[in-house]
Design brief:
Blueprint: H1 6-14, H2 23-42, H3 52-81, H4 86-107
Length: about 110
Amino acid sequence: MVRARLKTAAGNAALYESEPGTPHERISSDYLRARRAILDIAAQDALLDNNPVIQKSILLRNPYTDVLNMLQIELLKRRRQGSEDDQGKEDVVRALLLSVYGIAAAMQSTG
């Protein structure tokens, strides 16, 4: 849960959802309720308070992954618009793939 980035998810959802009551809103609401329940049960103020090394690692990493995620959202917009020439389309796809690899490496997972 600590790896989840609701703001990033909202940016991605905005590419595909246009009406209130979207799946993203429901997921965000469920996430926040689950997070609160976990913190209450664990008697913690923040996720991973019981593991400060991992907590700090994630907090230090987040500004970098946030930038990669914003870039990826912009690249997805460009890909969907499809207004570039063939070389431009190829460049956007390549940049998108690199953003996926970069985020996966930073998250230390597949996604």
